[in-house]
Amino acid sequence: MLYVVIAFLWTSIWFYLLFGGADFGAGILELFTTERNKSRTRRTMYRAIGPIWEANHMWLIIAIVILFVGFPLIYSTMSVYLHIPLVIMLLGIIARGTAFAFRHYDAVVDDMQVVYNRIFVWSSFITPLFLGIIGASAVAGRIDTNAHSFVQAYIFSWLDWFTVAVGFFTVAICAFLAAVFLIGEANNEKDRIRFINKTRSSNIIAIVFGGLVFVAAQFEHIPLVTWVFGNPVGIIAIIAASLSLIVLWYLLHKGRTKILRLLAGFQVTMILLTVTYEHFPKIVLFKDGTYLSLIEHHGEHKTILALGWALLIGSVFILPALFYLMYSFKKPKTENS
């Protein structure tokens, strides 16, 4: 049952990166959209994520609950040493959701709409930035449990060139996902071409930041090259992601966009697989060489058993309802509806 719980943890992180990432990416795209096209981007975004934007955070909640219940030592360690980026990320989620609701459903349209718009786009940028920083901090080996100062324990545990580079790479990935997903939501050819161009530019930016991640890892003496290319799974995943990227660009050039979402999701999946496979089951690496493992540092057997069954039974009810929610808002509207 332990592996069932771990599988749900990995899957929830995967879904949050895909669906929540595309959600955040829509705000990032708006941030870097000209004033002339911002209203058009907002209308497309509302149609795409408006009905289900809050449901995306279900995956983050599931991941947090799994760590809290099934892996309390890992949860408490990350909560203590990474509490600053965690708080910033959570505040970003709250600010983004609040701004989205007020700017979309506010009965009074006034100057506050400008404030809501700014809060929405910047929190859409900041949240995935710190999500990437948190993930990189867990495996960077910078957390010092023997630190004797606040700065060493709670600042330099997450703030360095490598973690910041991963944060910006995460932002670029979210923008790329959103651009790809919004192509299919455009209701005219002009917007469709605009989102295709944004897909190209955001993909190039993601590739550049991906390269900077390796440069920063080299600077910080983190063996990222070994982590990625030191095992067959990592090599196969990188090759598969690269090949799918070539196919994606070819389809963009030909104007065929029907399977772009699957290709973009596949690329992100391969990246996540590459990052997590090398360290599994280690999830937190410390500066002194020790670590926390999902296999070694889990909760009581009875707790894991109950958690596993709760996840299995809950998924039978929750997942069909969630996918039906998505379907119900995407199916064509009839004249009477």
Automatic annotation (TrEMBL):
<keyword id="KW-0812">Transmembrane</keyword>
<feature type="transmembrane region" description="Helical">
    <location>
        <begin position="259"/>
        <end position="277"/>
    </location>
</feature>
<keyword id="KW-1133">Transmembrane helix</keyword>
<feature type="transmembrane region" description="Helical">
    <location>
        <begin position="119"/>
        <end position="141"/>
    </location>
</feature>
<protein>
    <submittedName>
        <fullName>Cytochrome d ubiquinol oxidase subunit II</fullName>
    </submittedName>
</protein>
<dbReference type="Pfam" id="PF02322">
    <property type="entry name" value="Cyt_bd_oxida_II"/>
</dbReference>
<feature type="transmembrane region" description="Helical">
    <location>
        <begin position="53"/>
        <end position="74"/>
    </location>
</feature>
<dbReference type="GO" id="GO:0005886">
    <property type="term" value="C:plasma membrane"/>
</dbReference>
<dbReference type="GO" id="GO:0070069">
    <property type="term" value="C:cytochrome complex"/>
</dbReference>
<dbReference type="GO" id="GO:0016682">
    <property type="term" value="F:oxidoreductase activity, acting on diphenols and related substances as donors, oxygen as acceptor"/>
</dbReference>
<feature type="transmembrane region" description="Helical">
    <location>
        <begin position="204"/>
        <end position="227"/>
    </location>
</feature>
<comment type="similarity">
    <text>Belongs to the cytochrome ubiquinol oxidase subunit 2 family.</text>
</comment>
<dbReference type="GO" id="GO:0019646">
    <property type="term" value="P:aerobic electron transport chain"/>
</dbReference>
<feature type="transmembrane region" description="Helical">
    <location>
        <begin position="304"/>
        <end position="327"/>
    </location>
</feature>
<dbReference type="GO" id="GO:0009055">
    <property type="term" value="F:electron transfer activity"/>
</dbReference>
<feature type="transmembrane region" description="Helical">
    <location>
        <begin position="6"/>
        <end position="32"/>
    </location>
</feature>
<keyword id="KW-0472">Membrane</keyword>
<keyword id="KW-1003">Cell membrane</keyword>
<dbReference type="InterPro" id="IPR003317">
    <property type="entry name" value="Cyt-d_oxidase_su2"/>
</dbReference>
<feature type="transmembrane region" description="Helical">
    <location>
        <begin position="80"/>
        <end position="99"/>
    </location>
</feature>
<feature type="transmembrane region" description="Helical">
    <location>
        <begin position="233"/>
        <end position="252"/>
    </location>
</feature>
<feature type="transmembrane region" description="Helical">
    <location>
        <begin position="161"/>
        <end position="183"/>
    </location>
</feature>
